[in-house]
Amino acid sequence: MSEPNPLIIANLVAAQAAALPDLDVLTFESEGETETLTFRELWENAQRIAAGLKALGLRKGDRFALLIQNHPEFVELMVASAILGTVIVPIDPRTRGAKLAYMLRDSDSRGVVCAGYSVDGLVEALPDCPDIGWVALVGELADNTLPVPCHAIGNWLAAPLPDPLLAVAVHSEAEPMQLMYTSGTTGDPKGIVVPHGRFGAVSGHGEAVFGYRAGDRPYTGLSLTHGNAQFVTLAPSLKMGLRAVISRKFSKSRLWDIVRQHGCTTFSLLGGMVTAIHAEPRKHHDSDNPVRLVISAGMPAALWEEFAERFGVDIFEFYGAMEGGMSINRPGEGPIGSCGKPAPGLLASIMDEAGNELPHGEVGELCFRLEGAPFPPVTYHNNPAASARKVRDGWLLSGDMARMDADGWIFYEYRKGGGIRRNGEFVNPAFIERVLGEHPGVDDIFVYGVPSRGGAPGEKDVVAAIVPTDSYAPASLFAWARAKLERNMVPTYLQVVSQIPKTASEKPQERHLLEAFSAEGATIHTEQGEDA
């Protein structure tokens, strides 16, 4: 009989449950309340949930959606799905309506795991999803308005262990583990088919790539519906036996209290979170924390050194995409602002639209291939045309624009089709966000572009979308911008919003802000003082 494939998450957890049964490998935190999972509990709960899913008629290859925050059940469902050979479809639980209905239909999901906070959005979507046959609930539901049979995962967890235990149905790392959707910022979201081998491979990145050490305690507040939380925190922690802490959702105001309480030595964040954390009022003990390493994807160059000094941390900057491709800039190795050089086993190039390599310093599309081999095909579920376009002549086309210096260091510029070009020059939104974010009238901020009022092709006016504090005043913020920014960077518009809409990866959703910008009743200020 062949040995269990260690790249399959269910086999990894089963092996760790045998070797380290009582290690509290995962702590789930929510507003001060905690739940822990040992390896034994994770494995046994996954077996119980797998039995419950099997009783619903799920078979190998079937898909079901996870519409939940970072509960212990999320990871238990990941392992349970691997036991059965089914495919999970993680979806940001804030998704609702037509977008949710599209993702459920496109993924061919047979059922949905949800919680009380995501039920209303699911109820909106279900009339357009005739193939959804059941819902499994995390927690309790005060008023069940669901039009399909509803099952309590708590009942599955209270059941005896299957006897005998269910065998792991997945044998090859090439088999699909999950369908992870892109954010859909430029159109309908695309479902990336992620094989088991991808999760298994990145589980080995903890020590080899990110530099985790025995005894480290990783932390994340990013959603497990996104690759960062799974690949940077969860997978390496399971592989190395690190006692990870995972928040139900990200909190900029509680971040440092959480890592101090749990003794976390490393955490992961995205560029959009940096400005929010930096904008929090300074405290005398900011650097008095146990964190030694911040794993960052998108640390603004303008904040890099100040952030590291203020909080007493080293910055590990990297670039990564769910479809593949990765670059790394370990602390002290590369220039400030660079997302690194290709990770081991990869090559990178900056190319023009025709696939020609561009000279050093010129901006083009960031592309990757394997050392000595073409990049493997990328599969988007139900979208063969997009799949075919993603790899060209052996190179993965990232869709991100970047430049490379003479020493091979990569500098991210903007998403292809994005960027803010003003008066013939590209302006840096992250720098504007940093400067305006320091104003006492700003609680959160995102800077983007709208077509120029002057009508010049490719030119954009700068919009600063602001979540205001009680001290917000448009004239004060414009004066602040004039005093601290180059003229080309001063926003044309201040857009006042109640919150910055974001994806599960904390990426601001520019499309929604654009729609709100043009909507009747929008609060838009210009420097002249009138509403636009």
Detailed description of the structure:
With 532 residues, this protein is an alpha/beta fold. It folds into three domains: 9-179, Rossmann fold (3-Layer(aba) Sandwich); 200-348 and 369-392, Rossmann fold, CATH 3.40.50.12780; 420-525, ANL, C-terminal domain (GMP Synthetase, Chain A, domain 3). The chain is built from 16 helices and 27 strands. The protein has a nine-stranded mixed beta sheet with strand order 2-1-11-10-12-13-14-15-16, with helices on both faces. The model has no long low-confidence stretch (mean pLDDT 93). It is an enzyme of class 6 (ligase). Residues 15-369 form the AMP-dependent synthetase/ligase domain.
- The percent range for strand residues is 25-35%
**Mean pLDDT, rounded to whole units?**
93
CATH fold description of the largest domain? Rossmann fold
* Regions with little confidence, pLDDT below 50 for 5+ residues: none
Overall form = globular
| Strand line-up in the sheet with most strands | 2-1-11-10-12-13-14-15-16
Residues in helix, %:
25-40%
Rg (CA only): 23 Å
Broad structural category? alpha/beta
Named at the architecture level, the CATH assignment of the largest domain is 3-Layer(aba) Sandwich
Which homologous superfamily in CATH is the superfamily of the largest domain? ANL, N-terminal domain
Q: Give the beta-strand count.
A: 27
> Total number of helical segments?
16
In angstroms, what separates the terminal alpha carbons?
71 Å
Q: Sketch the major β-sheet.
A: 9 strands, mixed
CATH hierarchy class name of the largest domain: Alpha Beta
Question: Into how many domains do the coordinates divide?
Answer: 3
